[in-house]
Amino acid sequence: MKQLSAFFVASLFLIQLSGCSNIPKQISSAPINDVQLNEVRSQIAKFSNQEVRWGGEVVNVENSNDVSLIQIVQYPLNHYGKPITNKPSEGRFLAQTTEFVDPIVYKEGTLLTFTGNLDGEEIRKVDQKELVMPIVNVSSMYKWQPYRPVQRDPFYDPFYYNGFYPYHGYYNRYWYHPRFGYRSYY
Description:
The protein is an alpha+beta fold. It is built from 3 helices and 5 strands, in the order αααβββββ. It has helices spanning 2-18, 25-28, 37-42; strands at 51-63, 68-75, 91-97, 111-126, 129-143. It has a 5-stranded mixed beta barrel with strand order 1-2-3-5-4. The chain is globular and about 60 Å long. The chain starts with a helix and ends in a 43-residue tail after the last strand. The model is unreliable at 162-177 (pLDDT under 50).
């Protein structure tokens, strides 16, 4: 009975622990007046020093001696603050930080979410079109890990190599199991 209650308490602890998130609090919660890029684009001077939480996909990284600029294609954010790339973009913006941003680590296509204050605008050329891009002074930044689905064989039989079939025999069940990559002893 004691073992059962200890198991129950341990399982509840693990369930609570799995609910914890490693996403920074600034990223996971939106500012009080959540200003979007399409509102700011037309009146950037009006929203100067306004706190924003924006995210999107990296287009370009430029580093100089004192500042790094990251050009981002903006996407709407979900409730965790992760950019939703299958929804339409509202445009581009620049994220400015004093930290060094390595272009190899933050390569094109990386998903990022920023919080910071609006700090002016810059005119940039995209192909032949000149775009006005707001600049965000970054206070916190979060890099999202890419989602890679696991491809599994739909006809895979997990019990095939375990010695349950008569033609494998009793002694052949200690071979390496293809699913786990180590010896299976069952």
